[in-house]
Amino acid sequence: MRVPLSHDLGKDEVRRRLQSRSHEIGQYVPGGLADVTTSWPSEDRMNLAVKAMGQSIDGCVIIEETQVIFEVNLPLALSFVEPMVASAIRQQGQKLIAPK
User: Fold this and answer.
1) Nearest Cα to Cα of residue 3 among 68, 97, 66, 99
2) What Pfam families does the entry give (predicted)?
3) Domain positions in the chain
């Protein structure tokens, strides 16, 4: 699943905000009990590994000049919640890149 979010911040500012707030991602998962691990294999890509409610979900955030793309690999057993997950990513993703 791919969820693009438009921005007008420039890549450097989005990267800075994501790096400083990546520890908040677990709070955005329903129940707030997610274990989230992030890594930066390149300056414009943040990999995510989320473990919550007995499920593991991998994904990444790709930073582009005018958009941030959240890619999430939902397990087949969770494919029915894709619309809810996409909606949550749109809402919470904006919070990650919004000014404080």
Assistant:
1) 68
2) PHA_gran_rgn
3) 2-97
User: Which two tokens mark 33?
Assistant: 């009990």
Per-residue pLDDT of the chain (100 residues; tens, 9 = 90+): 999 999 999 999 999 999 999 888 888 776 667 889 999 999 999 999 988 778 888 999 999 999 999 999 988 888 888 898 888 889 888 888 888 7
If one looks up domain 2-97 in CATH, what number appears? 3.30.310
Total-model pTM: 0.88
Distances (CA, A) of 14 to 35, 51, 57, 81, 98: 23, 25, 23, 27, 9
Report whether 51 contacts 34 (CB < 8 A): yes
Q: Which residues contact 14 (CB under 8 A, 6 or more apart)?
A: 7, 63, 68, 97
